[in-house]
Each structure stands twice: as C-alpha cells, then as structure tokens.
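for the writeup, i need someone to sanity check this before i put it in the appendix. the sequnce is what the collaborator sent (i think, or maybe the updated version? ugh). structure was predicted straight from it, no edits. if anything looks off just tell me and ill rerun, i have time this weekend
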Amino acid sequence: MLMIHSGHCSKRRMIYQWLFIIKLVHLVVCFVAGQNSSNSQPLDYRYACLDQSSVPTSTAYQTNINNLFTSLSSDSATSNGFGNGTSGIDQDMVYGLYLCRGDVNTSLCHSCVQNSSILLMQHCPNNASAVFWYPFCLLRYSNQNFFGNLTIRPRIPMFDATQNFTSAGEFDSDAQVLMNGLIQIGSEAPLMFGTHMFNINGTQRRYGWVQCSRDITPEECRTCLSNMLEDVENCCQEKKVWRVFSPSCIVMYETQPFFLNGTDSAPAPQQATDGNNRRWWFIVIIAVAGIVALALLVISIYYCYLKRKKDKQTTQEEGLNSIFSQEQTDREESMNTDLPMMPLSTILKCTNNFSDEQKLGKGGFGPVYKGTLPDGRQIAVKRLSKTSVQGGEEFKNEIILIAKLQHRNLVRLLAGCIEQNEKLLVYEYMPNSSLDFHLFDIKKGAHLDWKNRLNIINGIAKGVLYLHEDSRLRVIHRDLKASNILLDHEMNPKISDFGLARTFGGDQKQANTIRVVGTYGYMAPEYAMEGLFSVKSDVFSFGVLLLEIISGRRNTKFYQSDQGQSLLIYAWNLWCESKGLELMDPSIEKSSVHSEVVKCMHIGLLCVQEDAADRPTMSSVVHMLASDTMSLASPTRPAFSVGRTVIEQESSSNTSMHYSVNEVTMSEVIPR
C-alpha cells in the first residue's frame, strides 16, 4: 500500500510541475507579446443597451439569455462564422445572433463569441435587447424576432482623432471611391463581406472592409452599408481611420493592414529591425516549447484515465459508429423497402433549415419538424439525433417496417433521407397533434365529444388488428399510448412511432426479450416483469388506452389523485359496484350514449385482465365494438399497475413529458 501511495504522489507532483512550467511559459509569452504590441492601437469594443423599459419582469428572461448565449457559443465552435437561435417560450422568449468576421478561423470566432457574451451581460444586465461589437465578431439579442430584418439603428461611429486628412476633400476622392466599390463586392459575396487595399499617390495605402449579417438580402446589405457611409460623411470626413457599427452591417477604414488573411494586393510586410527579429524568434521558441509541454501533459493525463473509462467509452463509440459509419448500408436497406428518398436540400428548404419555429417536439429518436413541400403539402420530419444510439435503431426499424405497412389508421411514411450524416424520415403531417394533447387537457378535452372518442377507439382497434392479422407481417407495436396516436384534420386516429415494434413470422405467437422497452402504465405485466410479449401485450395497452379515452384521465397520473389507486383498479371497483358510468369524463355526459360507454368500459376491462390468455384478440375486440347484440364475457380483476412512481408533467402548458422504462428515453410532444 505504501508503494502505491508513493506512486500516486509522484504522478501528482509531476503533473503539478508540468502545470507550473506551462503557466510560466504563458506568462513569459504574454509579457513579450505585450511589450511588442504596446505601441499598437488596443483592441476596443462597443455596445448598445436597448429597451431597458420593456424588460420582462420574470427572471426567466435573464435565464433564457444565459442559455441562449451558451448555445450560440457552442454553435460558434463548429460553424462557418454565423448562427442564430432562440431560448424560452411566450413573453420570455429571447432571440439571439452572432456574426464573426469573414477572415477569422473557427477557434478565434468561438473565443470572440464567448468573451462577447460575458462582457455583454456585464454592460447590459437589465435590458430586453442589446448589441455588442468586438474586434472579430458581433453579438446581439432581443425579446423581439429580428431574424431576417434589416436593422441600421443604433449606428456607433469610432475613429482615431490623431490621424486626420490635411483637407476635407481628400475623403471624397479616396475613401468614398473605395467604400462604394466594396459595398458591391461585399453584398454579393457568399459570406457577405469584402476587403480591399489601394494606393494613394503611389506612396500611401488604405485598407477597407465591409460586412453584413447573413440573414439579410444582398439588396438590404447594400442599403445598410450605404447608410453607414452617410454617417461617415458627418462624423469622420477628416479622419484617416474610422469604423461604423450597426446591428446589420459594419464598415472599417484603416491606414494599416488589419486583415487576417491577406489578398494579392495587400502590402508586403515591413522589414523588422534586428531587435524585433530577436524578440520574435524568442516568442516562437517559447511558444513551441509551451505547445510541446502541453501536448506531453495532455497525453499523460489521457493515458492515465483511458483504462478506467475504456469499457464505457468503447461501448458508446461502437454504438454511435454503428449508426453513422454505415451510411451506405442504411441507404441500401431503405432502397430495398421501395421507400422514396427525398433530397436533403428539399428537406432543409421546407423546414427552414430545421429552425426552432418549425419544431414540433422531441423524442428518443430525435427532434421532429414541420415542413411544407413546394406543392403546398405539409409534412413532419423526424431527424435522428447524432447522440442517440436508440434513435439509430428505431430509424432502421421504421424504414424496414413501416414502409411496408399501408392502412388508413396508420401514419404514412412518405420518404427517407440518408445524406451528409443526416438520417431523416418524412411523414404525412397530422394537424391535430396527438390524442394526449386533447384528451388530458380540460379545455381541449371538452371539444372531444363522445362521437369523436368512439370513432378514435374504433380506428385504433382497426389499426392494431391490421398489424396483428392483416398485414404482410405480424407486427407487435409494443408502445401503444395516447401520445403515439395522431389525429388528422377530421380527428381520425393514426397509429405512429414504430421504432420499438417487433415482427413475428410463421406461426410464432410470442417472444422473450431481456431488453424491455415501452412506456410505464401501458405495459402488460408479463412483459414488464418477464420480458414476454405477444399480440396480447398490445391488447393490454389498447385496454388501458380505451379506459383513458372514456375517463379523460391518464393512467400513470391517476395514482396521484384522491382515489389513491390506479385507473384500472378504480374502473374495476366501479364495475363491481355497477357504477360504471361514474368513470365517464363529465365533459361528454351530454353527448354520450350510456350503453355505448358501458360496453366500451366492459371491453377495456376484458383487455387489461392479468392473465394474457383471458384477454380477447384484436379481431374479437373489433367485433365487440361493432356489435350491439354480442354477449360479452365477464371480466376478471385487472393486472396491477406497472410504474406507479412515474413523474409526468401536466399538459396544461401544451407540452407533455412521457418517461419510459429501461431503454426508452423520455419523449417530448409539442402540439402539431
């Protein structure tokens, strides 16, 4: 034990020594570099704090600003220098945007956005909107949606008062010509920025720069830059060095080169003095030594911790690589199902580049977006999250399975897309969202009368019957629940989300799995406890769903009510006391037919019986629903309720959260 302890101390002491060396190198480099640049113009910044009087009173807005800045900063680490986003909802929503100079690399852009967000919060802590201009980037936010809007106010001029022209007319003949030409160049460039250097009298050089925010049009860019030049004529006509900032564009005019990647017309660097040469060689040597030391330290730390996390990392990497490193295999599988493939460019256009405004919800598979095709048809696009191993498995399952299923009560898979590391599924769009969005909301549930509910019950039953008996494959859905029942414009139900489905072939009746997937409250007991699933597992889930539709109550929430029991046991007790109508949602009292309600409750209790052998098949369920004279068997006590500790969020905010067991992650469903 003594030797082991000593070894750890030795390694720790070595790490501290390396850290000390690197810190010392950093201080030396900073000192020398600071000495070298002490005579140059310091990097400055400007900011504008706006709309202080209209700041939302809740602290949620400030939290959303922080969240937005974190998101934008993260995005800037991998983007091409421009990005926007939102955070929050309703009156607390904040819109934000960053724009980096067109000549900076990703690392410098990321650093600039990070620093800008910190400084902006320091200078404008209580403002509804603000703009921050740093030497290499622009950062702005607002409680109003400004994306795509030309904004030329406020305009902030900045100039060097020590460098003046000898005559005011010099600006008109030099800067005006240069900047007018740059306006045309910058507005038409792909990144909407332009630079240029030109000679004055063959001896002096001037450097110009223009850049626009990439969410405005080229014409708006020209308008913005022209307005900036008008301000220059008022504030800086006699100045040799000036800059003018606005939220949508920037112009800069300098006597010294400041571009980070020079053009062919850029001036050659001045010859350094011997002292400067020696100083820069010293900087290079120190910097290289520091980099080498840092690399050795990183390698040492990585090696020490690699073994301890190797198994976990290997498992995760293999899971993700199995999804993203076999793109060709996935494409071939999709082709074998005769599934049409839609170009990524088309999907990006119709979803507005997967904008947050088009987002419908998010599940274990990944986010879902609304889109509009060029012909006007609306679609729903599932986008596989690059961090979801489960989502990758569901993606393949849906491509192989649902493309072969065709029924009026199943959601239609229209197309797929496997392109540029994107994996997308395109479905028909359901304008009335999912059943739970209406059923478990007091106000919306009141509009779901008995006629509609009975139509939904019949439609779900026919859809499940098709899966079990009438399709080319016998399909066990394994995740029937209210949030997976979508409603079309006429409130007809369509079963969705086949990512967890399994198929049976030949005479196979049931199967066993050690990977139990599904949702608490809808699982049959033999499946939840033993991993046994069959068509009777779906029958159980259908029974739970039927009782929820009658009562307007969520099974997984019911135990928290004053009854202190599950919905299934509550319904059973009412049935035994001949009080079945008390289960009925009060909002359908006037529109209901009591005999139909009692019959549906009877069928629901038959479906949730504890012994799978006692439950009816879906063909029997469909016959029972269609018949008014068929004699029904007496139900036995239902199974216990699985998952009584589930925590769910109320749907009063129009968003419901569903937490699933084992491998199933939570899914968020937002009204469609």
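The chain is about 40% helix and 20% strand. The longest strand covers residues 204-212.
thx in advance!!
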